[in-house]
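QA checklist item 7 of 12: single-chain prediction sanity check.
[x] sequence parsed
[x] length recorded as 106
[x] structure emitted
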Amino acid sequence: NGYGINSTNHKCEKCKAGKYSNENKCVDCPDGQYSTEGSTCSKCSTNCEGNCDKTTGKCLKCKAGYGMTTNGKCEICGEGYFRFSTFGSQEDTEAAAERLVTLLSK
């Protein structure tokens, strides 16, 4: 239900983001899950590698072949693009190759 009893003042309170109600207590969502304030835990996107942010559901890392968008979602890289790093966004293959050649020639 998204609510728990505060152990200090014994009042019913909405569970904060990243937590859910379990036996009238607000407890952390399990690994691989997240919640917004007052909600139940939901599974992280299957495109995330490992856990997501427990309060927003945004991926912390993307699976291989996926790039991170500005809103924390992992989307498959389009043709001509690749993922520069585990945390990185998609980059144009040609532009990245030119940068690499420039770096290596120094």
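[x] summary fact logged: The chain is about 10% helix and 30% strand.
[ ] second reviewer sign-off
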